[in-house]
What does this fold into?
Amino acid sequence: MAITKILNIKSQSNLHNAIEYILKPEKTKEQLWVGGNAGNTTQEVYRTMMDTKQTWGKLDGRKGYHIIISWKPGECTEEKAYQILQEFCQEYLGENYDYVFGIHTDRKHCHGHIVFNSVNRVTGYKYRYERGDWEKFMQPITDKLCVKYGLPKLKYDKGNQKGVSYGEWKDGGKSSWKKMIRADIDYAISKSETYEEFLEQMGSMHYQIREGTSREEGEILSLKLPGQKKSCRTKKKTLGETYTVAAIRERIGKEWKRYPYPKSPKIKVCRSNGRWNRAYRMGGYQASHIWDIYEIQNRYAKGNPYAANAGSMRKHLLEIRKLRDDCRYLVRMDIRSRAALEQREQEVLQEEKRLKQQRSLEWELQNHGIYQKYQELENKLAQIPAWEDRFEQVLDELESLQAQLPNGVDQIQTGKAQLQEIRQEKRLIRQIKQMDEEHKQIRAFPKQSLHSGSKEIRWDPKKPQRKGGKKWKRNGK
It folds into this structure.
């Protein structure tokens, strides 16, 4: 029989650790069994939840809740577990709470995790879990889903309903720096014909590089990315045998690849007697974001035999979907510059503020005696056939009550959906601005110096590269 636990999360660090834990690629088959409405990455989900708290001024108290559902070995497949968690979240949480879930396949028994925000992103009210809520509200949903997919009903573990520290969940906290460095080394090798070009490629990717020597392995490199606490050395024990300086020198030239950009198919000439509409001409700001999609596609277009884990590159390809949404938004809203984007952001924030005030008034209205009577009549009207005389009588009474409501009833029905749409747009704008900041940092990246005793190598991003021993020319000069 399956077992269910619910835990509360008491601090921001525990919230971040819980999200990071359930999204680990090695536990979810490279995030194949991950879903939710708050994002795809740890930072994106965490920031979405914290933004909701900050918007409603609810930064204190419990930060979230963690639900664990596990089955016996062989009792449930990964596909069924994913469907059950997805449908449970949609029915119980809906679009009211930010949530993310994942199915872990690293053990013999299949189990899933759900983390959801403690603050309702539509009303601003905090979620309150009290003893007995599982049996009253959650268990009927899980029982229905288990019966639907031919599984035994879930058993609730009452001994684990209190919040616990996520120190026991944090299994090592190992970062993915090594995988990123291996992938970047592979890419730099594939774009270089000499060792000097390899160093230039690594420098262009923001690496702080130092050369040194080791008694055991001879020549080594020390690589460090912005935000990385410690440097990573190109040793066998650290990155692997194929990532030492000697192995890199041997691989350079053998793995040089071209990354051609997709070509448009040839269009046959045809005649048309109809009227031609002028095509939408994309601006430079919009085109720069579309360029990112081609750049990511081509970078990971070909497999790499030296890659430590080719499946880990899937998370980079998932960024294409995010970039696609950004591009569609820029074109749909006809945003052609950063200034236009910031202006639209201010409009969105003002609209969100207005809708929040409206929702507060609507919740006060719902507790009003007239509105409660209006709801009773509305439910009664739905059960009366339209051809009966009572239908017209109840309808007249309903319209009379509607005129007495201060803000009208239509706003209550549409305010919730409008607030969700405006927050989704705010999230897209935030993604686009973050991408712009990354591009700005790349353009402003300073020169890098490599010191090895008296030897010094400098990388200049403005210096023309060399290919085949010939210096490239610019602008025909």
About this structure: Residues 259 and 301 are 8 Å apart (CA to CA). DSSP finds 14 helices and 13 strands in the chain. The longest strand covers residues 3-9.
